[in-house]
Amino acid sequence: MSDADASAASLSPDREDGTIEDFTRIEDLADHVDDTVTLKGWLHNKRGSGGIKFLILRDGSGFVQCVVPQDAVDDESWAVADDARQETALEITGSVSADERAPGGYEVQVDAIAEIGDSGDYPVTPKEHGIDFLMEHRHLWLRSESQWAVMRIRNRIETAIHEFFQERGFLQTDAPILTGNAVEGTSTLFDLDYFDDESAYLTQSGQLHGEAMAMAYGRVYTFGPTFRAEKSATRRHLTEFWMIEPEMAFYDLEMNAQLAEDFVTHIVQAVLEDCEQELEALARDTSVLEQVETPFPRISYDEAVDLLRSDETAAMIDERIEALKDEKVNLIEEKEENQKRRGQAKKHVKRKIDAREIEINKRVDEIEEALRNLPDWKASAQTFEWGEDFGGDDETVLTWHFDRP
Fold it and tell me: Which of 66, 101, 356, 371 has the fewest CB atoms inside 10 Å of its own CB, making it the most exposed?
């Protein structure tokens, strides 16, 4: 063996599982119950007193509780566990055990801890922060459990999109980001200076390129960034987003509708099956998603207009308004009772009260937004004119009559 081969061999250990990492990922702990493993990650949270510490470690793949009894580790490891601050990078070695009560269902009984890097004064603490503060520290906010969950769900949605179309024989084609064409209307174009006094635009859609490709390949899809120069601060208007656009030759309305139903169902089922922990981290009620299955209800435009303008719809919106008002009162009463209890509560109870208050504040904000919008939605529904396009609020109201899309 040459010196170069020997050097390469020393840098590339031969591992039976084919991995290149010398540590275990948290998402793989289920395969290592009763084994001793080494984890590398960041301290997400810490609690404990006296002779025991509970460290919540995250490594990007998940979260795990690491139990550190003072009498089971050396003085150096105990000092690291005692001094470690939020987001300190750690290397932890210990044995894995299954525990349904622990985050992720597993726990690590720690034998040794080493500090890889201190985090300094970390600004994004577990307490509640305003959205402006969090966006200013977006690069750090991404490390929080909620953002971890959001990005992993987004990743699963994207992989499910490709699965769906690739399994059905669609060809993925990439449309250019800089174009010379308007697709959705010139009022929402981002106009850019191009070479030699020419203009180009940030793409509004890959539709035109997809249509041309469909005439060559039959079934294609584009999936890429899309830009709209709409200065609006609503959830329904984004300046930049990613859009999926399939184009199929010889498809009629029935075929298009069936493909759309199958597509939505596939995405939802993929997220439900593979993102259970992430959905739980976001405290999402999955019962609505579980109802998404084919066939979807289908009604004609005339039927939709009649339903939107009906007394049944008006009464349904009124009932929602009253229910939201009652919910808001109950939440505020719960918050006030919790604040009274907090003063004499133990630390772990205070943490639960504080966490619940964040949930209540968030839900109250959502309710207040809904109470502002619903009267306008009701008025829009009652005055809807035949021949108009349905707006986003009209479509939302119509879906309330059904238990699935």
Answer: 101
332: amino acid identity, one letter: I
According to CATH, the superfamily of the domain at 10-117 is Nucleic acid-binding proteins (2.40.50.140)
Q: What are 124-138's pLDDT values in tens digits?
A: 887 778 888 999 999
Residues 6+ away with beta carbon under 8 Å from 53 = 46, 47, 67, 68, 70, 81, 82
Distance CA 203, CA 178 (A): 6
Q: Which region, left, alpha or beta, applies to residue 384 given φ > 0 means left and ψ of -120 to 50 means alpha?
A: beta
Q: Are the C-beta atoms of residues 154 and 178 closer than 8 Å to each other?
A: no
The DSSP bridge partners found for residue 33 are 96
Contact 110, 93 (CB under 8 A): yes
Q: Give the least confident one: 110-119, 183-192, 294-303, 320-329.
A: 183-192
CATH topology of domain 145-297: BirA Bifunctional Protein; domain 2 (3.30.930)
Give the chain's length: 405
Cα separation, 404 vs 295, whole angstroms: 9
φ/ψ (deg, to 5) at 356: -65, -35
- Tell me if residue 153 falls in helix, strand or coil: helix
Secondary element (H or E) of residue 162: helix 145-167
Give DSSP secondary structure letters for 18-35.
Answer: ----SS--GGGGGGGBTS
Mean pLDDT confidence for 348-363: 86
Which of 82, 89, 32, 29 is closest to 58 using CA atoms? 89
C-alpha 14/C-alpha 11 separation (Å) is: 10
Are 209 and 176 in contact by the 8 Å Cβ rule? The answer is yes
Task: Please state which of the ranges 43-47, 124-128, 149-153 shows the lowest mean pLDDT.
Answer: 124-128
**Cβ-count burial 129-166 (b if 16+ within 10 Å, e if not):** beeeebeeeeeebebbbebbbeebbeebbeebbeebbe
Longest dimension (CA), the chain: 85
Cα Rg of the chain (Å, integer): 27
With contact defined as beta carbons under 8 Å apart, do 404 and 292 qualify? yes
Structure letter (DSSP) for residue 401: T
Six token digits for residue 361: 């504040």
Distance separating alpha carbons of residues 248 and 333, to the nearest angstrom: 55
